[in-house]
Amino acid sequence: MKPVQRRFQPPWSRPSSLQQRLRTALARQPVRRNIARAMNGLVDKRRAAFPDAQTLEALRDQGQAIRDQALDHLPTLLRELEANCTANGIQVHWAETPAEANAQVLDIVRAAGADAVLKGKSMVSEEIGLNAALAAAGIEALETDLGEWIIQLAGEAPAHIVAPAVHLSRQEVAARFRTHFPELEIGEDIADLTALARGLLRDRFARMRVGVTGVNFLVAETGSLCLIENEGNGRLCTTLPEVHIAITGIEKVIARLDQLPPLLRLLTRSATGQPATTYVNLISGPRRTSERDGPHEVHLILLDHGRARMQADPEQRAILRCIRCGACMNHCPVYTRVGGHGYGTVYPGPLGAVLEPRLQGLQLQGELAEASSLCGACAEVCPVRIPLPQLIRRVRRDQRARQARPGLWSLWSRLQARPLQARRFTRALAGLAPALNVALRWLPSPWTRSREPPRLARQTLADLAEQEGFADD
User: Fold this and answer.
1) Residue 341's Cα: distance from chain center in Å?
2) CB–CB of 370/396 below 8 Å?
3) Deepest of 22, 79, 120, 191, by most Cβ within 10 A of its Cβ?
4) What's the CA dihedral at 453, 456, 462, 463 to 10 degrees?
5) In which element (H, E) is residue 141 found?
6) Which fold has domain 72-308?
């Protein structure tokens, strides 16, 4: 079928910034192939990691219960966490906004007399723009996670919350290395590229005075920070420097240490299909006098940034269960076709469609909720049963309510609540069907930009039902 030819484009049909980013992402064919290949592999690995459906569902129930318990008692658990961390020698800082969190990091780094920091993988540091804040203060931030370091060299943002450089092939990674290190002979073998990165980064670890990491879980009972990783860079960032700064959202707390194993099983299997991650780091304080290594100071920065507001909303609270496995985006038909950069936000995919509008506001990011097919795949695989389609619809409803003018569907729903007026209206439309069908072909909309416009029928459904003997009682 030939596409409809249009002579002009009214202002209301012009693409938004999100639509422009998505179009750009769709035009990047090599990136799309890399993303699709990687996501297919992660989906297969996750499926193989959970061979027994009954066991998986029981584990998901357990994970949801643990996270819900923590969120139901969040203020109490945070107070307990602070008390136990303080007793362990961890200095706890509270930040309501990204600006406050960045200022706290800068104060600690300056107090340590450092002009550079080692960084382990941390989505919260991306959320607050920590690297930019450090650079503005003349402090270098060296990413030590391999994927994060690769995209840092390229000046790009992460494309995925678990695999930041998932959009790049090994050939593209090698090309970036050659650009930045022209004096080295660089091949395209993955093991060789990894070894090269390790050699280039390893000598920096011993000379850095401050390490910055994220946190996967906070254990209130013991005042412990749990960090998981596969490369060992996180362990070096938390052990070799004199000062360790851990930054995380307030929702990451759990009540007890015995709740950690089921969450780790869910997280690693859902993220990469591994039965267990390579390194599980439990940090319960700075170096003791009897210990040979570890930092002299450990600082924990707890970021709110709208999380307390979400926790207070019975429906929105569910998004705070998230354990950042990335399974929702791995299975999302939108994400797998456009990749993370198409969203233009720190958190992409279904997670971002819910979380970013709450963190940055509906006015800035409410449109992300439209980048969803509402197919439900994200909810089916979420290890802690977050009802993502329901929360995406909630963002859409809140976005419509925020708008000054009611949308088409709002007007339609109001009309359908009045059956007599609705019938009169549809009959009037049916009488105008020939003229309206011509107009629809020439008045574009987001729907008809990539589809044939609908054709209005000359008879209403109610009239056809009456003709067939199905008249209203």
Assistant:
1) 12
2) yes
3) 120
4) -150
5) strand 140-143
6) Rossmann fold (3.40.50)
Bridge pairing between strands 210-213 and 116-119: parallel
- Nearest in space to 215 (alpha carbons), one of 163, 275, 280, 157: 280
Cα 91 from Cα 82, distance rounded (Å): 9
Provide the token pair at 338.
């456009």
- Rg for the chain (alpha carbons), in Å? 26
Structure tokens of 267? 């997280």
- Whether residue 230 contacts residue 196, with contact meaning beta carbons closer than 8 Å, is answered with no
Q: Give the least confident one: 123-132, 231-240, 385-394.
A: 231-240
Interacting residues of 23 by C-beta distance below 8 A, sequence separation 6+: 15
Closest CA to 148 of 398, 346, 306: 346
Place of tokens 């000379």: 207
Question: Tokens 């949308």 belong to which residue?
Answer: 407
C-alpha distances in Å from residue 295, one per residue of 60, 64, 282, 405: 36, 34, 14, 56
pLDDT at 409: 65
pLDDT single digits (tens) 362-404: 999 999 999 999 999 999 999 999 999 999 999 999 998 887 5
SS3 178: helix
Q: CA torsion 184→187→188→193, rounded to 10°?
A: -50
| Of 417 and 322, more confident | 322
Q: Would you kindly state where each structural domain of the chain is located, as residue ranges? A: 72-308, 408-467
Here the tokens at position 13 are 């049909």
Chain segment 72-82, per-residue pLDDT in tens? 999 999 999 99
Q: Which of 26-40, 87-101, 183-197 has the highest mean pLDDT?
A: 87-101
Q: Phi-psi category of 283—alpha, beta or left, where left has phi over 0 and alpha has psi -120 to 50?
A: beta
Strand partners, 228: 280
Count CB-CB contacts under 10 A for residue 77: 22
Give the H/E segment covering residue 249. Answer: strand 243-249
